[in-house]
Amino acid sequence: MKPISVGLLGIGTVGGGTWRVLARNQEEITRRAGRGIEITVVADKEVERAKQITGGSARVTADAYEVVRDPTVDIVIELIGGYGVARDLVLAAIENGKHVVTANKALLALHGNEIFAAAQKQGVMVAFEAAVAGGIPIIKALREGLTANRIEWIAGIINGTSNFILSEMRDKGLAFDEVLKEAQARGYAEADPAFDIEGIDAAHKLTIMSAIAFGIPMQFGKAYTEGITKLTREDIRYAEQLGYRIKLLGITKKTPEGIELRVHPTLVPTRRLIANVEGVMNAILVQGDAVGATLYYGAGAGAEPTASSVVADLVDITRLHTADPDHRVPHLAFQPDQLAGTRILPMDEVITSYYLRMRVADRPGVLADITRILADLAISIDAMVQREPGEGEEQVDIIMLTHETREKHINAAIAKIEALAVVSGKVTRIRLEELGRN
After folding, report:
1. What gap in Å lies between CA 285 and CA 294, rounded to an integer?
2. What is the mean pLDDT of residues 54-81?
């Protein structure tokens, strides 16, 4: 059978990895797919570099639109990133009857609804395993492997840069700024690291997973996003002493009131496997009603780990290339006309537990004033630590862990506590998740 023809847009880090993996494992991939898969044309602005990588085995052009309009191309791989030109190219590929493979989480989080609708209309597939957690096959797990389950919640370490920074802060007792510089020096963080350290990258990925888990449209604009820039080594140390580690988690839960969609630093019990995921690695914990908790761990980025997912998508599309479009796996796991309009909960309505740290005057009655404020808002304390003041110090740290309460109540309590004359500065608030069965 004639090999399926693939056009590759972008042969940078992941594109180069895709070329190598496909070439190196060609025999096994063909045996699995049922026919050969060949990249026949590559579009990249750096034409000469692209020619060196491909070694003359594929046509090279600087014009990506030439690829998406090429009548001989069956599948287009989009690896150029961003959501401007990438969106136009993906839609053009679909309009021209091409299947699409993409690793572009930002594109899907922002424009996935439009792209999937266009693909549905044209009877083509859009595959995006590489868009979330690099080489970890989490999309296939959610969309197919766990299809018998009612997904209850997902909690994931889905940004390696942030996880590396938090791991180094804990291991070495360094400040955030110091570790960020190290991450940049190692190539783990960009010169402008905002997407990673502010939680935006994680929110893109969480938006995709939430849509698949709960059968809802992509709603990135409703995701609550909080990064790690304000975390201190003191809080990381206190958390450790209390039996917790701080991780930047993407969390999505289905509750009777709606769906939670949130990214923020989170205290996780040290005994949980996900709390022990270090460095640039990713891990995603999924709770299903039938299967219970399942954990997916691996490299969340990198040339060949991500290429592993890209090539897996190529194989899936090749297998289903001639299948009736109505009998393929739906893009978001649920049939397109069965997507739910379940509301995304505002952060004020989310219920969770909290870590609170406050700097207070070392005098009688202070603790009573603080606990009275919490009691008035029906916030109960699970654990508390009061640090002894150093010699000559007149202020001391108080650390409290609360039981579950609604976010708006903790916000009201913090405002009242900060207004006390005996409290110095701002109260540090970090959310806490037990990640047991809820």
Report:
1. 6
2. 97
Locate 202 and state its tokens. Answer: 């994680």
Q: Read off the pLDDT of each residue in 290-313 and give the average, rounded to a whole number.
A: 96
Which residue among 98, 105, 205, 416 is the active-site one?
205
Give the mean model confidence (pLDDT) for residues 151-158: 98
Q: Which long-range contacts (CB under 8 A, 24 or more apart) does 173-177 make?
A: 173/233, 173/237, 174/233, 175/232, 175/233, 176/228, 176/229, 176/231, 176/232, 176/233
Long-range contacts (CB closer than 8 Å, 24 or more residues apart) made by 34-38: 34/1, 34/318, 34/319, 35/1, 35/2, 35/3, 35/4, 35/318, 36/1, 36/2, 36/3, 36/4, 37/3, 37/4, 37/6, 37/311, 37/314, 37/315, 37/318, 38/3, 38/4, 38/5, 38/6
Mark whether 205 is an active-site residue: yes
Is the domain 138-299 a CATH 3.30.360.10 member?
Answer: yes
Report the CATH fold assignment for 350-432.
Alpha-Beta Plaits (3.30.70)
Q: Is 363 exposed, middle or buried (0-12, 13-18, 19+ CB in 10 A)?
A: exposed
Residue 360: CA count within 13 A, CB half-sphere: 27
Q: Which residues contact 350 (CB under 8 A, 6 or more apart)?
A: 224, 260, 262, 406, 407
Q: Which regions of the chain carry the CATH code 3.40.50.720?
A: 4-135+303-338
CATH 3.30.70.260 location in the chain: 350-432
| pTM for this prediction | 0.95
Reported as half-sphere exposure (CB side, CA atoms, 13 A), residue 297 has a value of 10
The pair of three-digit structure tokens given for residue 6, joined into one six-digit string: 């693939």
Radius of gyration of the chain measured on its C-alpha atoms: 24
Give me the chain's average pLDDT, please.
95
Among 3.40.47.10, 3.40.50.720, 3.40.190.10, 3.40.50.10800, name the CATH number for the domain at 4-135+303-338. Answer: 3.40.50.720
